[in-house]
Amino acid sequence: MRALVWGTIYAMIFPMTNAAQLADFLNQLEARLEALDVAYAEADWRKYLGQTSEDELNALEARRAALLLDDKAWEMVRAGREHAPDPDLARRLTLVERLFLGAHVESDPAVYVLRNRLDQTIVAFRPAVAGQTISRADQRELLRKEPDRTLRRAAWRALVPLATEIEADVIELMRRRNALAQKLGYPGYPDLALSLIGLDRRGVLELFDQLAGATEAVYRLFLDRAAAHLELAALQPWDLSYALDRLSTLPDEPFPKEGIIVAARDLAASLGLAEAGAAVRVDMTDIPYGGLCFAVRVPDDVRILINPRHGHLYYSTLFHEFGHALHARLVRQPAHSLRHEPGPFNEGMACLLQRFAAEPSWLQTRPGLDDAAIGEYRTGWAETMLVGLRALMGQAVFEYRAYDNLDGDLLDLWRETMSAFLLIPYDEAEAWADNPFWTVYPIYLQNYVVAEAIASQTWAAWRESYHQIVGQPALGDWLVERYYAPGASAEWTDKVAHATGRRLTAEALVEDLSNRLVV
Hints:
Layout: H1 3-13, H2 19-47, H3 54-68, H4 71-83, H5 87-106, H6 109-124, E1 128-129, E2 132-133, H7 136-145, H8 149-156, H9 160-183, H10 189-196, H11 201-229, H12 240-247, H13 260-270, H14 274-278, E3 281-284, E4 291-297, E5 301-306, H15 312-329, H16 343-354, H17 360-363, H18 371-404, H19 410-422, H20 436-439, H21 446-465, H22 474-484, H23 492-500, H24 507-516
Parallel strand pairs: 3-5
Antiparallel strand pairs: 1-2, 4-5
């Protein structure tokens, strides 16, 4: 529909008291949105296979912008939400209004053209270590497995050329986002982005303070133990993954790369969700990340790309992506706006399934994995989680502060913030801009921390209701009824509260970490 058609409909249904005509307008709008989202998700999936050009992505972005930056359509959505006679219709209009609001930043050509160019550069970049070009997966493996500390340091620094190349453009992208958010009346882009997903900066920072404060003592003990084990006076950033691999992870042999997809499908089947699990397409390919899930058309077409090696880490990663996939496959909502949920809840569904990879009763099913190793991993999981959560909190806080300080020295800010959260020196950091979250997934990192709180609180509720969790088919029904099927028909915070019996806090996550750590 062109603006003239929107205007004609607007004249027919304003002041939005005719529910049938308002629903017809919204159905047409959502049908167009869904067609664009499907086309973009398909192109995004092909991008990681080297089959999508930057021009194709920009053309899709332009079509989406033409729809979501249409002032007349936005006015109709806002007016409709205020006067909608039906609560279900009002809910859909609320969700679509948020899409319009976010699009006034991300669908602005000044943003998406630069974002897509940066994304293509990041995806195409290949790091070099000791004069040899390697994949991102191999770089991660060097940080995990390489006993030569000099090589680990080289692997940690391998993205500096990428960061140096794109830093000015990343800052410019952040500046453009900030300006557009401020034009909408927000202090800065982080405040807009958080509001659209049911969070606010103050609440997130309070959660971070609670987690960091409650776990600092045990985290310092881990750092001391790791330094002593590696015979180092103190750890450096390139030692963390290696220390975790030496002290806190399971052996690779019970987790062969060849069995990873079967293990994920078997997990889904054990929850009574075999049909949904079997319908998820999984491809192995060389991507910069451990795994990515693409909900191309919810709920019918859901795909995963993975880049695994041997080892428990990669099984855990695929279980995470399968959590996304099952969530998308089992939404049972008629409208496009109700089938897609905000990042904190999406990641919470992924982390819920990922937790099975750390459960002793699931680990006991892995051939060749003895009880002693499983018992030690009880502590290892918590230590790995502590390092990961602190890194995520540091990156998220840096991102907020960067938007507040784009004219300042962001490298100094990066060093200061990461040192404060990881409690190790970051003075050798030479660059900060290589992280794709700054460009493609802005203000997203806090979602992973919130997600772990959702996972812990949900697992606590399960333990109260079920004697056995692993291999419990009733959990599939629980997940579908309380989390998956309702989609976005209710706010995600209300869904968690209803499902677990209380509002979300960090208490269960702190308890999970504390119970598994040996002080």
